[in-house]
Amino acid sequence: MITILGPTASGKTPVAAHLAARIGGEIISADSRQVYRRMDIGTGKDLADYTVETSQSVRHFVSIPYHLIDIREPGTKYNLFEYQQDFFDAYQDIRSRGAVPVLCGGTGLYIEAVLKGYKLSPVPQNQALRDSLEGKSLDELKQMLIDLKARNGSNMHNTTDVDSCQRAIRAIEIESHRGTGVLCDDKIAQHSCPPVRSLIIGIGIDRELRREKITRRLKARLDEGMVDEVKALLAEGIPAEDLIYYGLEYKFITEYILGQTTYDEMFTRLEIAIHQFAKRQMTWFRGMERRGFHINWIDATLPMEDKIKRIIDLW
């Protein structure tokens, strides 16, 4: 397998698609929010990127198969356990047809979980715990999560998008369950997915260029109708708290629609949050390197052909 990772706005999806077109590959998404249907603009699915021009002389285009996008309904809570199972099903399916799996995304925990083969079990909802946490501030919840992780010696839970109380409570719920010893119990080891060998490619982008691209892309997505997308989700009956749970675009735009902020305040806060999110993604990837993963970094500004050649040479 080949893994293409990088922070938001690094251009990893077009690289993965062009690579897949060249080597007979299919893409498995590693994005925690692109699993949801009708959440397209806010999650940056950019499905047009999966259509690749392979010959300019005769204008020939190829559609690259992709997996683990649009597989759940909005309002549901997709988790790491489900992702690991879905990934392995897609991975085996692709391999069985003689194609090359290309894992692509920015959710570091998802990538690390499938490459290492984490032993996981589903984490049930703990209503008593949730009731005890009700009314606590986001800062208080984050500190509780930090304390729990330290106590458990855990680096498994992803904190890159714990930006709402609901998400923080779910993170505490997962970490508390792990603290019971159930999450990695030998009895469930047989249900775990094995580690996957992979060449890992990181799309490296200069911090200032990344910030510029994030701001430009945010403006473009708002112009494309991102607010209307969130309004449509609310109109179909998805509770506002569920959309806020998904974080970033859905959190801040929902608050704007509810009249809790102005448009300008929403834009400023969302822009800052995405910049912070990209920084935390890079922190996770650097942590992966410290945990023994070798990431081959490629400059995002190189011409596409140069990037693909470099990856194929490494492969």
Structural category is: alpha/beta
Low-confidence stretches: 182-191
Strand order of the largest sheet: 5-2-6-1-7-8
Rg, Cα atoms, Å: 20 Å
Order of helices and strands: EHEEEEHEHHHHEHHHHHEH
What percentage of amino acids are in beta strands?
A: 5-15%
The total count of strands amounts to 8
Main sheet record: 6 strands, parallel
- Counted by DSSP, the helix tally is 12
Give average pLDDT, whole number: 90
Apparent shape: globular
Distance between the termini: 9 Å
User: How much helix is in the residues?
Assistant: 40-55%
Compact summary:
This protein has 315 residues and is α/β, with parallel strands linked by helices. Helices cover 50% and strands 12% of the residues.
Write up this protein.
With 315 residues, the chain is α/β, with parallel strands linked by helices. Helix content is 50%, strand content 12%. Strand 3 and strand 4 (60-63) form a beta hairpin. It starts with a strand and ends with a helix. Residues 182-191 have low confidence and may be disordered.
